[in-house]
Amino acid sequence: MKSGHVVTRVAEQQWHAMEGDRVVGRGDTSRRTDGRTFLSVDAWHGTVFDRLAEAMLADLPKPLYTLVDETDLDLTSRWQRAGFTTWRREWEYVVPTTSVPVPPPPGVTMLTFGEAEHDPLRELDLVIRAEVEAGPGWHEMPAEVLPGPVPLDPSKYAVAAQGDAYLGLVRLGPVPRRPRIGLVAVRSDARRRGIARALLTHVLAALHRDGVESASAEVKESNEAALRLFEGLSARRASSNLELVLR
């Protein structure tokens, strides 16, 4: 590496690699709500990347994480040179909206976006969060599942209800051109009744009526139930992301 390259921590979460008075690379960190620290490095040259990564790793406590597109072999190898290893893979699916809606179990009704009442939706949200805490933990969940109470916007949720109780939900992100299915969740005491499939096909049918041809979703490779759910709706794998960790 050129002797003129100097890496400096310019802010709490930012590093710059300088060549003279010119910035030739940047490193950043972000802290997720689950407490994990994620790194990113933007540098044209591998030697600059390596120097930035080295400086950041020296300054930061482990474990550390980063996300890469699995097809970006160059970036993946750079992080591996720094000592990172693959922790998990998430598949991005493209989900067609042409699936035939599946009838819900007897007594269960579907509430479309904006129809759910705030208080029972909050109650369901808290139940799901408690089950995450007692089960897989926040680090195993999608980025959309955030620890602690968060503001709820009923316009982003479709809900499966039985009487006054809410049993399951789908949260949709209004991404332009291709909405993103951010979360599909059913209370543990209401699972294995076909509620998730019925709720998801209800959401897809609503999108289809609005002229939307497909939605996207990210599914962890080891989540076999979710993989079966989406692949049973003719979803196709479009790409994959790797979450790398340095312990």
Structure notes:
GO terms for molecular function: acyltransferase activity, transferring groups other than amino-acyl groups. InterPro entries: Acyl_CoA_acyltransferase, GNAT_dom. It comes from Nonomuraea maritima. The protein is α+β, with helices and mostly antiparallel strands and 247 residues long. The chain folds into 2 domains: 5-90, Gcn5-related N-acetyltransferase (GNAT) (Aminopeptidase); 93-240, Gcn5-related N-acetyltransferase (GNAT) (Aminopeptidase, 3-Layer(aba) Sandwich), CATH 3.40.630. Helix content is 26%, strand content 37%. It has 5 helices and 12 strands. The chain has helices at residues 46-59, 73-81, 118-134, 195-209, 224-231; strands at 5-11, 14-19, 22-31, 37-43, 64-69, 85-96, 109-111, 157-162, 165-173, 180-186, 214-220, 236-246. The strands form 2 sheets. Strands 5-12-6-11-10-9-8-7 form an 8-stranded mixed beta sheet, with helices on both faces. It has a 4-stranded antiparallel beta sheet with strand order 1-2-3-4, covered by helices on one side. A hairpin with a 5-residue loop joins strand 3 and strand 4. It is elongated. The chain starts with a strand and ends with a strand. The mean pLDDT is 90.
The total of helices stands at: 5
Order of neighbouring strands in the sheet with most strands = 5-12-6-11-10-9-8-7
Overall number of structural domains: 2
- Just name the CATH architecture of the largest domain: 3-Layer(aba) Sandwich
> Would you give the CATH topology of the largest domain?
Aminopeptidase
CATH top level of the largest domain? Alpha Beta
Give the N-to-C terminal Cα separation: 27 Å
Determine the mean pLDDT: 90
CATH superfamily of the largest domain: Gcn5-related N-acetyltransferase (GNAT)
Shape: elongated
Largest sheet: 8 strands, mixed
